[in-house]
Amino acid sequence: MQLVMQRSRLEKGWFYRIGLVVLTIVLMTLVAPVAHAKDMKGWMVIGDGQEILPGQDYSLFNTDQSLYLQEQERRGANLGWTTGSNGFMRIQRLADGTGPIKCGEPFALFIEVEWVIYEPQNTGINLSTRTQVSDTEPYHWVFAECEANSVIPLNQVVTLRNVTAGDSVVGCTRIWGVNLCWADDVTTVGDRNYRTPDFDFGLVSGARMVGQPSMESSSGAGAAELENPPQPNDEQRKWREEKLNELLIPQGASPKPKN
Questions:
Q1: 124 neighbors 76 (Cβ within 8 angstroms)
Q2: Average pLDDT for residues 76-100, to the nearest whole number?
Q3: Handedness of CA 103, 108, 114, 117 (dihedral sign)
Q4: Which residue has the higher pLDDT, 18 or 242?
Q5: 62, 164, 168, 173: most buried, per Cβ within 10 A?
């Protein structure tokens, strides 16, 4: 009888210890800090001089795409790319004042003929462009990853963050819309960015998933395919089109918070 009671106490002790471990894990999960969106550099404001001045014309160069941003009519944000510097970028500060734009200072971003603003979309990145906006709507951009109140230099790599999205925008390869992504939503391989869901599903160059028809490469398999991806054959193109149709969000459906 005494042996049974000792065994019962021992089992209760183990259950108690296990319960404490489980409770500790749960509490650690509840109080764990929320991960903030990452910032990534990826732009160069090209122009004459040393500092970025509101109201002046510049060219906005993307380091991932190695192209300049321009207006291009499409569904969602009317943005696209061009090979040459164009003077299509202009910024306007929110507050009164003169002088160069500073780190963390809110401004509106104008590309060629339209303001670039945050707006949820059914497809593509959650950005939109407008020829006319409210008094405060477009002033949701800042230069980030810089010393507070420091002057932002021209012709150097900078971080462009949208405060409404709480994330910086970068160039990327994606299957739908202009090649822009939120930094928190990209997979970087080498020096190239890919939208993570598209990469994971094998719908962008360099990515592959189970069931995807293989592509032959004269340069061999592995990491080399990411830098010099082979061209898809007819079977590969058909497979990607079918997967793309499965992933597209129907018109009128509620958009995801990040795109």
A1: yes
A2: 91
A3: positive
A4: 242
A5: 168
Contact 58, 90 (CB under 8 A): yes
Cα(59)–Cα(133) distance, integer angstroms: 22
Cα gap 143→125, rounded to integer Å:
19
pLDDT of residue 123: 86
Quick check: is 59 in a domain?
yes
The DSSP result for 89-122, as a single string, is: EEEEESSS--S--BTT--EEEEETTEEEEE---S
Q: What is the mean pLDDT of residues 232-254?
A: 51
Q: Report the 10 Å Cβ neighbour count for 75.
A: 12
Q: Are residues 47 and 167 in the same domain?
A: yes
Does residue 127 lie within any of the structural domains?
A: yes
Whether residues 68 and 156 share a domain: the answer is yes
Whether residue 105 is contained in a domain is answered as yes
Residue 68 CB partners (closer than 8 Å, separation 6+): 46, 59, 60, 61, 62, 81, 82, 83, 84, 85, 86, 88
Mean pLDDT of all residues in 98-107 = 94
Percentage above 90 pLDDT, the chain: 52
Rounded mean pLDDT, 48-66? 96
Whole domain around residue 136: which residue ranges? 43-171
Only one residue has tokens 């970068």, namely: 170
The CATH number for 50's domain is: 2.80.10.50
Question: Do the domain assignments include residue 21?
Answer: no
Count of structural domains within the chain: 2
